Structure of Cysteine desulfurase:
Amino acid sequence: MTDVAADHAGDLAELASWQRGLRAQFPIVHGHPSLAYLDSAATAQKPQAVLDAVQDYLTRSNANAGRGSYPWANTTTALVEGARERVKEFLGDPRPERSQVHFTSGTTEGLRTLARDWLADLLNDGDEIVVPFADHQANLSPWLEARDLLARQGVRVRVRELPRQAGSGDYDPRVLGRITGPRTRFVAATHVHHVFGVDMNVHRIRRVVGPDVPICLDAAQSVGHLPVSVADLDVDFVVFSGHKAMALPGTGAVWARQQRGPAFRPGGWSGTPNTVGIVSLAAALDWLDGAGTGRIERWTVALTARLTEGLHRMPAYEVLGCRSSLPAASAVQRRSSIVTFRHRGIDAQDLGFVLFSRGFMVRSDGHCQAGAEDREGSVRVSLHVHNTPEEVEELLSVLASLQ
């Protein structure tokens, strides 16, 4: 066994007892032992601590935030404001006194809010922005909408495609350096790709564009799955969904550094916040910190390494993303929790139905992918801390029987 493969096997062995204790904290997983939930990139399951926090809030102090002076309302207001600080702490914010957290319904709304209420104030006629054309649709459409809105006001903004390397799917800093210049005002990027499952190395973008260009990071597939440090990434916005980070659906957050460009202040009347969702988000971040996002990443990387190695040995399957990262001996960066593939003879939707009949819940469609790849379906397996090596081995056995 190579050193790299031994490292992954060693992580699974070292963390096995820790993982069993965490898996037992997911009622829906523990209550359905014959099913394997492999769709955490779409929405994550909730640990008991999050469910308890929601139940406690709804039965003890449920009220509106910032709308009353009685104790329940005051408690709710304090919970919401405390959750803002909790997000900053979770992201390793080096200057929390200066930054801002705005709660949204999820990543999509957060990105659209930035495009509508912040980006338009940054740009002038002739400026350029760089955005991903082959990531999630939610990280492309808002920027194009902002361009079109400005065009109707007589402000012409050029949208450039964030370049990618052909072989790996990673961003290409060398090409980025050639297409950016003094009129580059903004860059949007993705932290972990929702189809390829790899860290897109966004820290290299700052080195290319310099110290003054704001960078917005779609962190929907990284927050809750691996350590995220805004101090290390040096980005200006981090946008993520609560439901992918073990909180309830309908909540998310925009973290804004407030150091480059105009200050981020969402427009319009904010209305009633999703207080129960925000409570669940704070509880989820507490749970994730207790579990250790670094250990969660080690566990899921080891599981995906085993899955990609097994698929690599089956000629009937094409794994999307960097081919050189598939063997267990590869030193190339591994997928953190997502493996997406196609069967060369079975339609993705049909394969998804077959897998569910064998107890595996996966996603099988275009995965909201922007660009031409959206037209062709594939099967996405997305793992989290509650998944086991046994589930991966059984999945590989079923897939092998379909060759």
